[in-house]
Amino acid sequence: MIGKIIQFFKAYPKRSCFILGGLTSLAFAPVYLIPLAAFGFSLFFYLLPKHASSIHPFKLGWWFGFGHFVVGLYWLGNAIETVGLWYLMPLGWFGLPAFLALFPATATWITLRKAPKSPLTTVITFSVFWFVAEWLRGTILTGLPWNLAGYMWPLPVLQICSVIGIYGLSFLTILFLTSFASQSRLYMLAWVAVFIGLYGWGQHRLTENPTQLTGINMRLVQASIPQSTKWLADHFRENFDKHIGLSAIDAERPLKAVIWSEASIPTFVTDYPVLMDTLAAVAPKDGYIIVGGPRHGNNGEIFTSTLVINDKSNLVASYDKSHLVPFGEYFPLRRWFPFVNKLTPGTQDYSAGTGIRTLDLPGLGKFSPLVCYEAIFPGHVVDSQNPTWMLNQTNDAWYGHTSAPYQHLQIVRVRAIEEGIPLIRAANNGISAVIDPLGRIREHLDLDDIGFIDFDLPAPLAEHTLYSKWHRF
User: Fold this and answer.
1) Could you confirm whether 117 is annotated as catalytic?
2) By Cβ atoms counted within 10 A, which residue in 129, 220, 373, 387 is the most buried?
3) Which of 17, 161, 256, 372 is catalytic?
């Protein structure tokens, strides 16, 4: 059987690279088949020297990367279909993966551009350039640091992100995954030992740091509004009342805030006093209700925002999303294509806010609001004001029952580990969660769950993590 598999890979190198790249993405949430990632990378390096002379290494690397991103990001097609643009689904399935595959293709080409090296030198060189490619992918053209290699690990191994961040762990991960193709038993065993050590250290860190609580009680509301009806005027009252009903249920302990998800109110709520009064009525006494919705700017802009309303119907704080989704929330080629609309409802592009910032409210302390995928960018989720928790409001109903909501949750929990502060996640249609500063998910509501979580806000770590010290100060 193994011989036939190897013969197939030799006979069809491009298809084989595509398949191997796809296998590596099965190591991410919700599957977590890490051995397949090791198999995919190892066999990829078995193919490279045998075909580099007849097929350009850039092409082999591109097919490997294409398979990696087609499997890992297949849910993009579902997001496009959700807004009724089914004819553009191939752009999600294949268009963006084809572009992103240029990064591993370049890493492969640079690795093999000179005379053939030893297998050990090759895998080390490739790991360095894969790391650079991942960093560039997460940075240029607004960036998409989704499914970085380090995200495939369980919670104990993820603890090292408190020291070196997710990019550092991703670099170590690629060194580990490619070590099986190094033809050096000592090198391979060394990396196995490294990750056994990381697991042990992480488990010790989790044991030595039980979750501490602040005594600040809040409620997460998940109404699970279908994306197909979320922005329809005929369903506004129904959807709004569902949120209100969940918010109005008596709590066992006095609450300080009720939190709704991103775009939970799909209209300009501050323009309607009756909506403000209705929200204030379900806000805790001397507390707040935190919702997501659009907001008018002073110069005709439209922002997608976090809005904090107190029990007296006043907007006491707001945050405008600063890292917008290209094509989804604005059309980046507007100057040349003024007639093309963004994918989200409405014809006017959203404007970007001024940047990540901290809100400081009596009774809630300092927190960093992050709207949707803003929480996936390492090192860019808090400012210098030292917030003690993060709030991630999102709407993952776009992705349906795909791997995306699980991947999104895995990604944002690492921000809590890196920064050493808890992250509270309010998601429409899942997955809402309370995450402590070590990334432990204390409570959650799954996909399609309709309900709420009353929780005591976890406390931040007593000291800043090493990662937060060197990236924040």
Assistant:
1) no
2) 220
3) 372
